[in-house]
């Protein structure tokens, strides 16, 4: 199991600020809820990683 292993699983993802000044990524799938909180700096690092991954994915096509 890894990043290139495909699965037929549906999931919902929400991203937004919390009332505690954190950024929450909330994932719900098959009755499992996963809240992940990040400080704003960590969230920006994650956003940078997402942008880099998107750019790399474009290069594969």
Number of strands: 3
Query: How many helices does DSSP assign?
Result: 1
| Biggest β-sheet strands, sense, barrel | 3 strands, antiparallel
Shape: flat
What order do the strands of the largest sheet run in, or round the barrel if closed?
1-2-3
What would you note in describing this structure?
- With 61 residues, this protein is of the alpha+beta class.
- The protein has 1 helix and 3 strands; from the N terminus they run βββα.
- The chain has one helix at 40-60; strands spanning 12-17, 23-29, 32-38.
- Strands 1-2-3 form a 3-stranded antiparallel beta sheet.
- β2 and β3 form a beta hairpin.
- The chain starts with 11 loop residues before the first strand and ends with a helix.
Quick structural overview:
This protein has 61 residues and is an alpha+beta fold.
Defining key terms:
61 residues; alpha+beta; 3-stranded antiparallel sheet; 3 strands; 34% helix; 33% strand
Task: Compile the SSE list and pairings.
Layout: E1 12-17, E2 23-29, E3 32-38, H1 40-60
Antiparallel strand pairs: 1-2, 2-3
């Amino acid at each position: 199991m890894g990043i290139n292993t495909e699965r037929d699983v549906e999931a919902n993802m929400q991203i937004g600020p919390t009332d505690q000044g954190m950024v929450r990524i909330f994932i719900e799938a098959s009755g499992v809820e996963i809240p992940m909180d990040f400080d704003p700096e960590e969230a920006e690092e994650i956003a940078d990683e997402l942008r880099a991954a998107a750019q790399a994915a474009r290069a594969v096509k």
